[in-house]
Amino acid sequence: MFQSACRRLLLQTPGRSATFLRVASSAVHRPNVPRTIGSTRFFSEAPKEEAKEVDPMAAVAAAQAEKLLAVKKQLWEIYLSTGRGANALFEAIDLDENGAVDPEDLKSFMIEVMGDEDPKEIMPYAWNRLEQRAAAGVQYDLRHFKKWLVAATKMSADMKNSRVMAYLMQNPEVGERFFNQLPHQGLHAFDDEEPANYTWNEETMSQSLRRMQYAVRGEVAMLADKLAAEGREILYTNIGNPHQVGQSPITYYRQVLALCDLPAECGVDHPKAHEMFPADVIARANEYRDIIGPSGTGAYTHSQGILGLRKHVAKFIEARDGYPSYPGDIFLTNGASAGIAMVLQGLMANNNDAVMIPIPQYPIYSALIAKLGGRQIGYNMDESLNWAVTREELDSKLAKAKKEGLEVKALAMINPGNPSGNLMTHCDIQTVAEFCAEHGIVLLADEVYQANVYGDSAQFVSAKKVALDARLRDLQLLYKLASSELCSGVVGQIMTSLMVKPPLPEDESYELFRKETTTIFEGMKERSRKLVEGLNKIEGISCVPAEAAMYAFPSIQVPPKAVERAKEMGTTPDNLYALSLLQETGICVVPASGFGQAKGRVGFRTTFLHPDTVKAVDLFAKHHEKFVKEYS
Ligand SMILES: Cc1ncc(COP(=O)(O)O)c(C=O)c1O
């Protein structure tokens, strides 16, 4: 009871929980005194068996100390996950309530809460500052404590941030304003003591937003932009952005979109329209123009999207899954990202609301959860099982989350996988769907790559189809959110309809459409195979076949000296590897740590969109050999 009541207090009101912490801590010294907080009463009782063997007072004190440590760890965990509860943390260290924290107390607190991890390694720069203060015997008030917390919990190591700033400064193209252009700040005894110039700054901003990060556009991509600006040829494989790397737009889509946008007299009603556009394109554009109505593409639509277009989507889903689908249940959003953001916003009500996400994951999930101040629970996908997830793994992660007082609201499933490139089987999906159904967890199925399946016998199965068998519950909050955002872009809505309702074999555009889409698909299929085969031939690199989506996610073996060097640089071994790969070869990948991966694994994600992907295999091999030599 002690634990759960304490947790309740902790998770709901960080300020009050710290008050409780003080009470609990004084109970260590006077264990037989009942403690009251509000209406909650706690008795400090010695466990019976222990009381028989040892001094009961000592046993109670030990039990209390353990509980106290659990509370401290939770406060730290909450801050780490949500960016909230800095005041509570301060109060938890400032036990004599004099508004000042001794650096030595802060050091002991951090060592305690970080358990197996060494704060010196995790936060070298912030730890250094703390030691300087301790040596000088200068205490922290709340403001300086918060400043220190910001430094201690930067998502990226401080040295990495200074490297990023250096790239930006050398690259005026990005249009940044730099610190050295600001008025001189003066010298201070401690660099965390510089007066803040602005009321909105790194400490006062939303700490959830500060802690949000998106590796796909991280340090490696920034260095790539800098090198490109200097005239270096860069092979961008860091982002799934087909047109950026030369994929031609599909003619049919562009023609229909153009005719929807153009004034009728310049487009569908132009006397020479039939000389410029195939008849089915004109017919489709006219169909859309009728559906959209006289307001055209420039007006707000129904907040869920235009009904006629949602009907097309519902029909597609119905044909795909063999279950009814209703336009009223469809929400057309500005891409999947906006949809994910809406759903997560609707789900995250408290700091202790959590979402289970796959590890590795597409980082929009971790970024948005951080931004919304929620908690993420990673469930590991097993690389040795082609990135499948087991029921045991889901159960154990849920149990752990519950033990920590978290409420798991949703589970995100990415199929086909990004970054893993795997395709879930019917059976895999059923495992996840049943788990969600049993625990009343909302299943978020991210299926943006459903058309990109390359394995010869592989077939995409939607979570809806599987989940309907498992009778999952619906999410009802969405409409409220959607209506607050007016509507998604009309061009995107039309595009969605075009994707689910392509030209038919009897249509004039069909042949070109088929040729263009098949060329793209076959190119991806071939490159996915050749890239993975090529990577697997390199000694020290291994890659699970990319059956779907557009990514390969190899793991690499790096020498221990490279791990040491990364530590010295305040970065991860895969960031060091990716920076080196970029500098040596011009290939821009994303370090695997940006997606999450098993402890000790080192890897990267590369797309196989670029036509030169296969040629790049040689460069990957040469670089790997050089890198291993350099650090051996
Ligand atoms: C798995 C996954 N979900 C969602 C998105 C975002 O999609 P959109 O561009 O439609 O917002 C991406 C984009 O890369 C993705 O890989």
Automatic annotation (TrEMBL):
Family annotation (Pfam families): Aminotran_1_2
Chief place of localization: cytoplasm
One cellular component term from this protein's GO annotations in UniProt: cytoplasm
Gene3D superfamilies in the cross-refs: 1.10.287.1970, Aspartate Aminotransferase, domain 1, Type I PLP-dependent aspartate aminotransferase-like (Major domain)
SUPFAM superfamilies according to UniProt: PLP-dependent transferases
Family: Belongs to the class-I pyridoxal-phosphate-dependent aminotransferase family. Alanine aminotransferase subfamily.
Name of the protein in question: Alanine aminotransferase 1
Native species: Seminavis robusta
